[in-house]
Amino acid sequence: MTRILAFSDLHLSRGRAEALVAASADADLVIGAGDFCNQREGLVGAMSMLKDMTRPFVMVPGNAESAGELREAAHQGMTVLHGEGVEIAGLAIFGLGYGIPETPFGAWSCDMGETDAAALLERCARADILVTHSPPKGAVDVTSQGRSVGSTAIRDAILRLRPRLAVCGHIHDSWGRSATIGATQVRNLGPTPNWFEV
């Protein structure tokens, strides 16, 4: 079993970053599901806060940073996934970032439509863990107004791939919530330590 520490939506919180770095000593793998900074600002600082992670660290961009920006700011030992996969500790991990579907937040937000998201997810033939910034439609995706705003493309990919675990963030009102889609455990992470064994 691989012991996994996962989080999302750090949004430049130094205190939360320190807690995550400390917790990472007990992990075999760390996963970050996007939104490390705020509105495309402060990403270098966010990555510096996390640079002392002691384990392999897989991340996807949120809607607050682009894939290119995240790759440029990443430190050694950090693997950025956006429409691609990697194998670590015998686990196939596939990642897709950004706000899906498009958000109402304006020009700063890194968003993607369902069609483009589905095309990138089609690249994945197998995943033990699916890491996305946005949640799947109908699971851990409810706003404070009670609206389900998740992605149909991500939900379809979970049903097709049947990963053991699917983690996301993005919808702050659903942080810490879990659901199942088929046999897959789905968790909206939030910025505190979430532990899994896969």
From TrEMBL:
Domain of life: Bacteria
GO MF, any single term: hydrolase activity
Residue ranges of every copy of the Calcineurin-like phosphoesterase domain listed in the record: 3-173
Pfam families (UniProt xref): Metallophos
SUPFAM superfamilies assigned to the protein according to its UniProt record, in alphabetical order: Metallo-dependent phosphatases
InterPro entries: Calcineurin-like_PHP, Metallo-depent_PP-like, UPF0046_metallophosphoest
PANTHER family cross-referenced by the UniProt entry: CALCINEURIN-LIKE PHOSPHOESTERASE DOMAIN-CONTAINING PROTEIN, METALLOPHOSPHOESTERASE
Name the UniProt record assigns to this protein: Serine/threonine protein phosphatase
Organism: Halovulum dunhuangense
